Amino acid sequence: MSQTTNGGSTPRRGRRVVVIGQGYVGLPLAVRAAEAGHTVVGYDIDTARIARLRSGDSYVEDVDHDRLGKALESGAYHPTTDAAALAEFDVAVVTVPTPLLDDVPDLTFIEDAARELARYLRPGALVVLESTTYPGTTEDVFGALLHKESGLAPGTDFHLGYSPERIDPGNRTWTLETTPKIISGVDAASLRRVAEFYDTVVERTVPVRDPRTAELTKLLENTYRHVNIALVNEMAVIAHELGVDAWEAIDAASSKPFGFMPFTPGPGVGGHCLPVDPRYLSWRVERELGRRFRFIDLANDVNSQMPQYVVQRLVQALNRLRRPANGSRILLLGLAYKRNTGDARESPALRVAELLLRTGAQVSAVDPHVRDTGPWESRLRRVELTEEELSAADAVVLLTDHDDFDYDIVQRTARHVLDCRRRLTPAENVEIL
To answer: CA angle, corner 271, sides to 127 and 376, nearest 5?
Structure first.
């Protein structure tokens, strides 16, 4: 059933749509649905977040202040913390977090959303889960709870589907609208309703046979990236010890027009997708099949060690400069896990900062995109990227290669740079990870 469609069903606009969760996934979807002609309630339990949205202040790069303001002014988008606003919905989409708790999938937010929606669920309504999770969640957990709490049966009384999010924060080419959307339903009627909704907000939908397939598709995508990033990270470590330029080897291999797709080394992986999502799959495999998913275990091990390797390389560089790490002034460029975004969730840069602080180093950080690093905010000195800061630093570590950094001044001024993203030119004062 893995055919594609760009609107095989007739798009039905003008629906009352509820999007539960107004983060990096939910907010772009809510605003896009409002632009597509739906009346949208953006529901979130975070009062501070909703207050910012109501004032027209967006915290997500993919929805700028102007776009948010227009959605608010049109009256089509209503951010709220009031659960009563969920009443009489035609379509509900759940985009809540699915974190790990002691390395075990935590479905608390999904379960809470199901209980909240069940109070307002009506016959004929459509409910779609977008949160990344293991195969079986939509039907065995989410749908079962909706059934239990409302008395309405999925596929019989209401429509239920799963459509994994594919948001890539900061990507101006592949946006929510232009990225093909995987869709599924618990039955044929549910799939048609899911297609009818998403065909109004995206350019192309890709149906699969059932929610379990869609859930596995998302985990496959993230595991593929996780494993390949781990491969090149370990390759970079080994190449350095062998005295070989791993980056040049990757460039050369990329000239092959078939059988190779380039991935690049870095200080580790961050965000929700790579450090968390593959573990959902490995947990499910171990629990249901009684065996380990060895590729995921290996990738976790390699990628989680990269911040330690970055610090090791930096300490070695400081030793060559006859400077102990204890007391050295270290300037970190970038705190986000991904360039041109303010998303610091699970960012390896924060782990690098933690390890450096443990050595006794004086750590400063530059990141114009990250507003708040949570508990780290009081421990990191936040500064602007200036000649004075660069000159004062014993070493600079480029961790997130934001496009608005002035790399010329870094190359020219810094005493020593460990460039983890290959944005600078190798030189006496510039070392590439």
So the answer is: 120
- Measured CA to CA, the distance from residue 384 to residue 36 in angstroms comes to 40
Percentage above 70 pLDDT, the chain: 95
pLDDT mean across residues, the chain? 92
Distance CA 240, CA 421 (A): 15
pTM value is 0.88
pLDDT tens by residue, 226-237: 999 999 999 999
- pLDDT tens for 127-169 read 999 999 999 999 999 999 999 999 999 999 999 999 999 988 8
pLDDT at 22 > cutoff 80: yes
CA distance 220 to 290: 19
Q: Are 211 and 139 in contact (CB under 8 A)?
A: yes
d(CA 414, CA 395): 7
- Dist CA 391 CA 283 (whole Å): 48
Max Cα separation, the chain?
73
Residues forming beta bridges with residue 139, ordered by sequence position = none
Catalytic residue from among 273, 306, 317, 363:
273
Reported for 171-180, long-range contacts at CB under 8 A and 24+ positions apart, including other chains, are 175/28, 175/62, 176/28, 176/29, 176/32, 176/62, 176/201, 176/202, 177/32, 177/201, 177/202, 177/203, 178/202, 178/203, 180/4, 180/204, 180/205, 180/206
Is 273 an annotated catalytic residue? yes
CA distance 433 to 245: 9
Inter-residue contact 314 to 272 (CB < 8 Å): no
Better-predicted residue by pLDDT, 104 or 327:
327
Residue 427 has which token pair?
């030189």
Look-up: residue for tokens 């046979």? 209
